Amino acid sequence: MTALQELLERAAETETVRFGAADVRRRVQRRSRRRRSAMAAVALVLIAGATVWAVTTRTGDTADRTDVATGPGDSETGDDIEGVWAPIAYSAVVVPPPGVYIELEGDGTLYGNDGCNSFSATWSVDRGHLIVGEIEQTLQACDPEQDTHLIDILRDQPEIAQPATSVDGERATLELHSDRGFVAFEPANEVPPDAPGLDSPCSPIIEAEDPNVNELERAGLADAVPEFLIDRFELGSVICLGGRDAGDEETTVQAVVIELWSDGSLVARWLIPGWPTGGGETWPDYLESLGGGPGVEELDYGFLQVLPSEHEDEIRREIAQLGESDYVSLWSHLGTRGA
Amino acid sequence: MSDADAAAFCDRVRTRLVGALTLTCGDRDVAEELAQDTLVRVWERWAQVSAMDSPEGWTFRTAFNLASSWRRRRAAERRANRRATEREPAPQDGAIAETEIVRRAVSSLPERQRAVIVARFYLGYDVAGTAQLLGCAPGTVKATTSQALGNLRRRGLMPDIEGQEEVEVQ
Questions:
Q1: Looking at the complex, does the CB of residue A198 fall below 8 Å from at least one CB of chain B?
Q2: Terminal C-alpha separation, chain B
């Protein structure tokens, strides 16, 4: 074994791995349940919509609709608070960040996200109080100002408020009260997405099925790759860059690298001919350090406004030279050459 | 093709997977999270993955891709929080552990160099296997290995690997 191998071995495996196959199985089951819940919610909405449409079409009835309460009723057993809840009000002076939720599952498992970390615990109801077991959290580094109010309240074994009615008078809410304040929730149809930014202007975002399958191929676009990309490369169009580590060396790279990532966050990565690489931490940082770079007028994380550039012809030529095989791998890399 | 097979596979690769991701990300906790995410994907596609020539290869490749996504998200978070935090990690007292130095050194490499180093010198793939794993030409693997080792050496973070390049890069 070489010195480097020994160093890597020591650096990689100094602690015991804290999860096993049983944990993976639980995550798989959880994802499956979420999918089923989401599909059921969609089906329910479709059925409800179809029913309302059928009734109103058949009878012409325009009378006020009857609201069916959802959410908490008699919270002695907890059966009536199962489901996904999104906060609508905190007692603390904060606005719940997007993506915050708790999910009370029928098997006594609680899942949630506080806007930064995901967490899980057991839950039950005892004499009108939500009893939350030890909360296990992911350990993503968060903003120091990250609010912990939600988890603090959950740890307090909060009292479940009697069925409440939200301000619009239609939807039942769930309120958890403790000495330190309260959190009010409303029912949510499904768990919010973990990562923000799915409203990317890089449409169409092709939904991922396999993170290792080139999405162009999966979408049946591989055969038309050059044309497809040329079509996409329209001056003034917005192309997603994503936060990407910068290039390798202090050298000039003349290349066009195109990658399509299955999570939709990175649709294309462009090394514009004539741009030196190296030194930057991420592409946006790097481009920012260049003052935007040629052809770049507006720069924000993940998005690059491509404007008329002196490099347009070069870029088009590079794209035209790419072959289908260049897209098979996420690591496709064409024409990199040092200055 | 049962759940038991998938479970056995998970248990067999998890240590190596976490190790590879620890080197790739430089953070043990993140590595465990990503490793579990990876294995969830393996489990969900076990019928297909188990029929592959190298289920481990697919697994590690998925892990590298998830690690890349994580780095992109982290970069976004850092940018979003930069003005709010504007602070660097507190300097540690005394000498930094060797393991931490190595993790930092590897995880700070450019993406492809990082993947090549981990694939070749931690996971034990040869040049051809690494090329297959990463979807690039063997020549690219060799060149990238050379660059990565040069980077590690130039940064002075791992003087122990002096001369490694000549040994490892054919």
A1: no
A2: 40
- Cα separations (Å) of B57 from A212, B11, B132? 11, 16, 9
Nearest to B41 among A14, A211, A330 (CB): A211
pLDDT band at B10 (very low <50, low <70, confident <90, very high): very high
Closest of B149, B81, B31, B7 to residue A12, by C-alpha: B31
* Cβ-defined contact of A329 to B134 (cutoff 8 Å): yes
DSSP A180-233: TEEEEEEEESSPPPSSS-TT-SSPSPPPPS-TTS-HHHHTT-GGGHHHHHHHH-
Which tokens is A216 given? 């162009």
Write down the pTM of the prediction: 0.44
Give contacts of B131 with chain A, Cβ < 8 Å: none
Interchain pair A301, B80: CB under 8 A: yes
CB contact under 8 A, B136 and A333: yes
ipTM of this complex: 0.82
**Most A-contacting residue of B13, B54, B73, B106 (CB-CB within 10 A), to test interface:** B73
Predicted local distance difference test score (pLDDT) of residue A35: 52
Residue A214: how many CA atoms within 13 Å on its side-chain side? Answer: 20
Contact at CB, A332 and B15, closer than 8 angstroms? no
> What would the two tokens of residue A11 be?
């650096």
Summary mean pLDDT of chain A:
53
If one compares B95 and B11, the residue with the highest pLDDT of the two is: B11
Q: Which helix (H) or strand (E) holds A57?
A: helix A21-59
Q: What is the mean pLDDT of residues B127-133?
A: 87
Residue B168 pLDDT > 50? no
Nearest one of B114, B120, B115 to B134, comparing CA atoms: B115
The pLDDT-based confidence of A103 (bands split at 50, 70, 90) is confident
